[in-house]
Amino acid sequence: MGILEGQGVSKFFGGLAAIANVDFHVDQGEIVGLIGPNGAGKTTLFNLISGTFPLSSGEIGFKGRRLNGLKPHQICRMGIARTFQETKVFGNMPVIQNVLVGAFFGMPTHVSGAAATREATQALEFVGLSAMGAAPINDLTLANQKRVEVARALATKPELLLLDELMAGLNAAEVSEAMELVTRIRDKGITVVMVEHVMKAIMGISSRVMVLHHGEKIAEGTCNEISCNRKVIDIYLGEETRAGS
């Protein structure tokens, strides 16, 4: 069953099309990978889904409800949460307070401090950081700061989670741990769309993959279909292979 759909989605900055007439759908319970070269429009698409940017044209729907024109907090409270390409944490606050922000922000009505603390504590436990709640967040490694971001998103109680380069900058062991975390999030009943350059992760856990290039969707399919797609190989996968060699 479709949980997220886009039709003719476009975003222009001046005369530049960052996203051009993109159609997409995400089914409930999927992990969908979103790949493409730098500047392809991947984060812009996340910004359109989450309400950070208004659409220039087209329509995005979540569970049959139109998202066009809604503010980020309204979209979050409908059940869509996200992380960011560059880790965005509140450096002057301890870990638990960073996650509490999500617990308060995601609630459609007033929530007590005790209830928000329960949500934040459960989210930290889920990502494996329950022992670090009181730690200054700036003392954490990059991998753990990213986990705090995931916990903050989970504390909003989403049905759909947008992960923007969760595994960027992580070593091989941390990537494997992050893959396991994303799989557990899906198993928890949360649909995931992930922007990622780490092909091991994309091909290892995605149900389907969508490929953007210069703001246009150039391919979509299973991991096997995408890995054999000549256009994708020429534009992106070949580039990644050369970069890793």
Under CATH at level 1, the class of the largest domain stands as Alpha Beta
Q: Helical amount among residues, as a percent range?
A: 25-40%
| Major pleated sheet | 6 strands, mixed
Count of individual domains: 2
From the 3D coordinates, which CATH architecture of the largest domain would you assign?
Answer: 3-Layer(aba) Sandwich
Order of helices and strands: EEEHEEHEHHHEHEHEEHH
Q: Determine the mean pLDDT.
A: 92
- Ends: how far apart? 40 Å
Q: Structural class of the helix and strand makeup?
A: alpha/beta
Provide the β-strand percentage band. Answer: 25-35%
Radius of gyration in whole Å, from Cα?
Answer: 18 Å
Please give the count of helices. 9
Give a count of the beta strands, DSSP E runs of length 2 or more: 10
Describe the protein in words.
Helices cover 39% and strands 25% of the residues. It is an alpha/beta fold. The protein has 2 domains: 137 residues, P-loop containing nucleotide triphosphate hydrolases (Rossmann fold); 78 residues, no CATH class. The strands form 2 sheets. A 6-stranded mixed β-sheet has the order 6-7-8-3-9-10, with helices on both faces. A 4-stranded antiparallel β-sheet has the order 2-1-4-5, covered by helices on one side. α3 packs parallel to α5 and α4 crosses α5.
